Amino acid sequence: MAKCSICGKGAHFGNAVSHSHRRSNKMWKSNIKSVRVKTEGGSKKMYVCTSCLKSGKVERA
């Protein structure tokens, strides 16, 4: 699973609990995109979550 290169956000794990309270494994995936990002040496392709893109922590190339 991919992780955000800026904040480190990745997948979260837990239990899905049904109405009868039976538990099964569940995975919540973060909204992570592959984006070209401006760096000092030019542009670089990175995995970035959409909350980092929206907040302006990353500048697109």
From TrEMBL:
<keyword id="KW-0687">Ribonucleoprotein</keyword>
<comment type="similarity">
    <text>Belongs to the bacterial ribosomal protein bL28 family.</text>
</comment>
<protein>
    <recommendedName>
        <fullName>Large ribosomal subunit protein bL28</fullName>
    </recommendedName>
</protein>
<dbReference type="InterPro" id="IPR050096">
    <property type="entry name" value="Bacterial_rp_bL28"/>
</dbReference>
<dbReference type="GO" id="GO:1990904">
    <property type="term" value="C:ribonucleoprotein complex"/>
</dbReference>
<keyword id="KW-0689">Ribosomal protein</keyword>
<dbReference type="GO" id="GO:0005840">
    <property type="term" value="C:ribosome"/>
</dbReference>
<dbReference type="InterPro" id="IPR037147">
    <property type="entry name" value="Ribosomal_bL28_sf"/>
</dbReference>
<dbReference type="InterPro" id="IPR001383">
    <property type="entry name" value="Ribosomal_bL28_bact-type"/>
</dbReference>
<dbReference type="InterPro" id="IPR034704">
    <property type="entry name" value="Ribosomal_bL28/bL31-like_sf"/>
</dbReference>
<dbReference type="InterPro" id="IPR026569">
    <property type="entry name" value="Ribosomal_bL28"/>
</dbReference>
<dbReference type="GO" id="GO:0003735">
    <property type="term" value="F:structural constituent of ribosome"/>
</dbReference>
<dbReference type="GO" id="GO:0006412">
    <property type="term" value="P:translation"/>
</dbReference>
<dbReference type="Pfam" id="PF00830">
    <property type="entry name" value="Ribosomal_L28"/>
</dbReference>
